[in-house]
Amino acid sequence: MSTVELTKENFDQIVSDNDFVLIDFWASWCGPCRQFAPVFEAASERHEDLVFAKVDTEAQQELAAAFEIRSIPTLMIVRDNVAVFAQPGALPEAALEDVIGQARKLDMDEVRKSIEDAKQK
After folding, report:
1. What is the Rg, in whole angstroms, of the alpha carbon atoms belonging to the chain?
2. Closest by alpha carbon to 55, among 103, 79, 22?
3. Is the pTM of this model over 0.70?
4. 21, 22, 30, 90: which one is catalytic?
5. Active site includes 33?
6. How many CB atoms lie within 10 A of CB 65?
7. DSSP E strands: which ranges in the chain?
8. Sign, CA torsion 67/2/45/18
9. Is the pLDDT of residue 58 over 90?
10. Are residues 83 and 77 in contact, defined by beta-carbon separation less than 8 angstroms?
11. N- to C-terminal Cα separation, the chain
12. Is 60 a catalytic residue?
């Protein structure tokens, strides 16, 4: 699947319409972002059931600020409208595959319950 460009206009719809979205926060001037881009693209080819999206932090400064992106690239995974992973830094292919595998295995009912429990404390 080709990578989707996320903007503040389409972000909510894409994230809420899809169960599993990987988001790469990047900028064209960022060397590590350019190194990570082919790894991200290759993973999008292998995992056609997932949505791979990119946020250009220069063009979408409000979106980057909303997610408190301080370092790029930052990879975020959103499942069922819940951010389950966020980490700055370019991941090597094996690490990206591992993170995707772990995110796939998450029991989202358990995740929502722990979020609810944390809010009540």
Report:
1. 14
2. 22
3. yes
4. 30
5. yes
6. 11
7. 4-5, 20-26, 51-56, 74-79, 82-88
8. positive
9. yes
10. yes
11. 41
12. no
**CA 3, 30, 10, 68 torsion: positive or negative?**
positive
pLDDT tens digits, one per residue of 41-51? 999 999 999 99
- Out of 6, 21, 33, 64, the active site residue is 33
**Residues 51 and 20 sit within 8 Å (Cβ to Cβ):** yes
Question: Quick check: 36 and 89 in contact, CB under 8 A?
Answer: no
Give the pLDDT confidence score for residue 119 in this predicted structure.
Answer: 86
Residue with tokens 């999206």: 53
Instruction: Identify residue 52 by its one-letter amino acid code.
Output: F
User: What does the DSSP 8-state code read for residue 100?
Assistant: H
Q: Which residues pair with 25 in a beta bridge?
A: 55, 74
Give the DSSP letter of residue 70: -
Q: Which two tokens stand for residue 82?
A: 């819940």
CA angle 51–64–22, rounded 5-degree value: 15
CA distance 103 to 95: 12
